[in-house]
Design goal:
This protein has 227 residues and is α+β, with helices and mostly antiparallel strands. The protein has 10 helices and 8 strands. Strand 7 and strand 8 form a beta hairpin. Helix 1 packs antiparallel against helix 3. The model has no long low-confidence stretch (mean pLDDT 95).
Amino acid sequence: MKNDALFDGLSIALARNGLILRGGFNFAADDDPPSGPSGATAKAVLLIGQAGGAPWPYFEAWRAKQPPGIENPLDDWAREIIGATAEEFGARAVSPSDQPYLPFQRWAMRAERLKLSPLGILMHPQYGLWHAYRGGLLFDDVLIFPTPRQAIHLCDSCVEKPCLNACPVNAFLDEGFAHDACLAHVRGSAGAACRDSGCLARNACPFGIAFRYTAREQAFHMRAFMR
């Protein structure tokens, strides 16, 4: 299958569940890539993810048919969808939650030329902080990718950085994310706004507002964080 046909076919298949291709690249000799579908070292990776909350209705419809008490339902849903897509297109599916962990964040930065925001989330020039990577497809063959453009890093032009002023416990420090302080706040009596409507710092970001997750979706992610 030629690259254009492969990318077009993948885009159509993924769109049935609100997912999109998020770029990719061919591994270099010093990358130590994982194995591809044949078991030999993979030659290329394509990342799969979301822009905004597009997959959410599909995920909720799937979840309504599942037994209660699934520990990580979003991971399970993404594995099912991306796994079926991999099978259809002769690839091997991998997930950010696979262990040992694969370097998904580094792969994403390389594939889409993105940089980290002060919150530790990759800043996208169109989607802001409202996007995610749900998996990847590994291929046995080298693929031909368009040359990725250098993404504009919106945080560089953001002088006031309201994200850093919105966190009630100043969890985003130069030294790194203060996980324990954030978790204690979200679980505590003063953390209702974060629990019910999502991270106040993330919501304070002025970029990508059209892609912001709904309060329902953000509350789901906060519950997962609290576990």
